Amino acid sequence: MTIKGTREIFIITGESSGDQHAAKYVREHLLLNEELYFSGIGQESMKDEGVSLIYNSEDISVVGLTEVIFKYKKIKSVLDLAKKYLYENRPALVVLVDYVEFNLKIATYAKSLGIPTLFYIAPQVWAWRENRINNIIKVVDHLAVVFPFEYDIFSKFSNNVTYVGHPLADDNELNPSDGKYHDKKYDLGVFPGSRESEIKNNIYTMLDCIKPSKGDSPDYSNIKIFYSNDKTKELLEKMLPVSLHESLKSGKDREEIRQCKKAITASGTITLELALLGIPMVIVYRLSSITYFIMKRLVKLKYIGLVNLILGENLGDEMIVKEYIQPKYHDQVEIMAELDKIDNDTAYRDEIIKKYLEIRNKLKPGAAKNLAQIANKLIF
Predict the structure, then answer these.
(1) Which residues, listed in sequence order, are joined to residue 197 by a DSSP beta bridge?
(2) 230-252 pLDDT per residue, tens
(3) pLDDT attached to residue 4
(4) Which pairs count as long-range contacts for 100-109, CB under 8 Å and 24+ apart, including other chains?
């Protein structure tokens, strides 16, 4: 229920990174106007900033077509809950953070109610469904993008597009370690993803690659496995042997991440964080067979990792960081070889780090502050 005398902003995000980005925006907007009231669907970071959550989105954080089908009833019930809330409370603005398919349905409904919408972190239709851009522009009042190449694409279709910068550019904790590579505490950091489906699809594949060579037993003695929240920690504890439970660490503990020599990681925002922390990585990502079959025919880009998208000369056409999508057995051998090369080829490792240093220069700071200013204009 909206507090009397305030304007309400309703926020929706479906995953851990979006939740953190939304929380930073809330903090900045309250600096502009402390009388605002925030409600929404999100996770712990939003809640910690004082957002009144009507639902915790950890339960509906999925990726992939078949994965969505398995959770369809739950997702549909939360979609209906959000629509009911909008109809009954009529907030001054709806801010939609990533979580594309769900949020575009909400944008369409909000428009039917006359409620303005601000979409933050643009739908990545440029990767596979550029023909949908016009449909998005029709239902979103303003689009706030986080990469300059996204602005170039979306601004062809609308004037209501702003390149606000990337939220990670303002994170002062995202700096490389001062220590030498071989002085770091951990041989490897494992980042299996922030969603339940990602972890189930990726964790065993990743762990099976931690071998000196094919046929050897994996060496887990000096690795750390990073989880995004309490729910994913519980899932990993159920999936992993007890002997690995002590290896689990919070993905929010940047100092522990900084102590990893290298990483094997799922695709997503974490790849950008690792690059800013100066940690060489290999991207390993597995989807359900049906989802992969469909996506392979839709996605236009050769490479999908954010580091490769940002640093490549042509969008998605150059590999700075090795990617293994839907890895097969022979890929496992290549992954082991790549991890070994990172460890033992100093010149190769230094070249990766040199490339990483270019990223910060390509990311514009001030995303949350700029987003707050746009939101303020939409409601006043």
Answers:
(1) none
(2) 999 999 999 999 999 999 999 99
(3) 44
(4) 100/124, 101/68, 102/12, 102/14, 102/60, 102/75, 102/78, 103/12, 103/14, 104/135, 104/136, 104/139, 104/140, 105/79, 106/12, 106/79, 106/82, 107/136, 107/139, 107/140, 108/139, 109/83
Pairing outcome for strands 263-265 and 142-145: unpaired
Residue 3 DSSP class: P
Here the tokens at position 33 are: 């106007």
CA distance 267 to 13: 18
Residue 238 makes CB contacts below 8 A (sequence gap 6+) with none
Read off φ and ψ for residue 305, nearest 5 degrees.
-65, 140
- Which segments within the chain are labelled E, that is strand? 8-13, 37-42, 52-56, 93-97, 117-120, 142-145, 161-163, 188-191, 223-227, 248-250, 263-265, 281-285, 323-325
Q: Read off the pLDDT of each residue in 92-98 and give the average, rounded to a whole number.
A: 96
What is the spatial distance between Cα 321 and Cα 330, in angstroms, rounded to a whole number?
18
pLDDT (average), residues 113-129:
82
Instruction: Record the pTM.
Output: 0.86
Return left, alpha or beta for 119; rule: phi > 0 is left, psi -120 to 50 is alpha, else beta: beta
Residue 16 CA to residue 269 CA, distance in Å, equals 10
- CA 159, chain centre distance (Å): 26
Say whether pLDDT at 287 is over 90: no
Q: Could you give the CA distance from residue 377 to residue 1 in angstroms, rounded to a whole number? A: 23
233 within 8 A of 197, measured Cβ to Cβ:
no
Ordered by where they begin, the domains of the chain are 8-166+364-379 (3.40.50.2000), 181-362 (3.40.50)
Q: CA torsion, points 314, 317, 321, 326, in degrees to nearest 10?
A: 150
Measured on CA atoms in the order 90, 93, 95, 101, is the torsion positive or negative? positive
Measuring CA to CA, which residue among 366, 167, 183, 368 is closest to residue 276? 167
CA 367 to CA 310: how far, in whole Å? 17
- Per-residue pLDDT, 311: 80
Compute the residue count for the chain. 380
3-class DSSP state of 55:
strand
Q: Is the pLDDT of residue 219 over 90?
A: no
Cβ distance 283 to 324 under 8 Å?
yes
